[in-house]
Amino acid sequence: MLKHNFIKIIAFILISSFFFSSSVCAKMQAMSDDDLIRINAETGITIALNTDAYLKATSVGLFTTTAETSGIVLPNLVIDGTINTTADNYTDPSPVNINSTIVLDIGTLSGKTWVNISGLNIYNAMGLTSKGIYIEDGANDRILGDLYIRGIFMGRTLTGGASPTPGYSPPGNTNDFTMGDTPFIRLGGHTGGIDLYASMNLYVNTLEYRYKPANSSNEFRLSGIYACNSFSGTVQTPSTWVGSGNLSIGLYNPSLYNVPGETDYPATIDVGTLSGKTYLSLNLPLSGSIRINDFQIDDLFNGIGPVAVDGAVVKMAIVTLYSL
């Protein structure tokens, strides 16, 4: 029993790190030479997982100070197998099967220590819920709203047609989504934030952000989200889309993306204060293609249609969220 519970804990630490590294209340620090000498794992550590589990946390936050007076907080966080937005999955979460062989490795590059995680596949539909997300800024908390992400898959072929993969239901598209290369994420640290590189083949059935007041009439909703290397098919006709390969977050080898002579560009996540206001800053350089079957805003803009970003190479894409 202790071994089984330990494996569950390890599994969800990895999953949380992959998807929500910006939400972890921790500061990464470089390891000393003495620490690295004590590591005896030339090819890393391999963990074989096949377990049913879920993650539930009262709150997860990323703060600028140890006093936790300034930062962003995700309350009532659940990562589980729920595939709808009506069930109370915080009270009654649905376990999801995790079946992956994960390899963890620690190394240095250009004087920086990195943790490399590869082989993390999401074979069964996974969901994430957080209700009442807010920015904490001293005594002036700012409510941002609720987040529902449903039907997350990574690193597997999804089958459409008459017998679709459970949880895979993009509107107007019954084509298969082809598995790419083995996903990986590489994490490092800098003063006040996190560096990361990632490679993935990802599908998300729905992403809903319900802003204050948090209900389905005041929401931003994306349906049928694909992230991969490239697509075939007619751009304006989702029923013809077939995606394959991996999307890269962080340009870890710019020469591969026709950016010769450039240095590497990691994605970065930072939380800080400016002029007395708390902010979250994301820099997400990437290479690949993203397509969305449909999106809607409130009840006024319902079913606007497909969105396609193909063959993108982005050296810098900074998004900064302030306490509004």
Q: What is the element layout, followed by pairings?
A:
Layout: H1 2-19, H2 33-37, E1 45-53, E2 55-63, E3 70-80, E4 96-109, E5 112-118, E6 122-137, E7 142-154, E8 184-190, E9 193-200, E10 202-210, E11 219-228, E12 230-232, E13 242-244, E14 247-249, E15 267-274, E16 277-283, E17 286-297, E18 307-314, E19 318-322
Antiparallel strand pairs: 1-4, 2-3, 3-6, 4-5, 5-8, 6-7, 7-10, 8-9, 9-14, 9-15, 10-11, 11-17, 12-13, 14-17, 15-16, 16-19, 17-18
Order of helices and strands: HHEEEEEEEEEEEEEEEEEEE
Total helix count?
2
Question: Which value, in Å, is the CA radius of gyration?
Answer: 20 Å
Biggest sheet, open or closed, and with what strands and sense?
17 strands, antiparallel
Write down the overall mean pLDDT.
Answer: 79
Assign the structural class, choosing from mainly alpha, mainly beta, alpha/beta, alpha+beta, or little secondary structure.
mainly beta
Strand content: over 45%
Extended strand count: 19
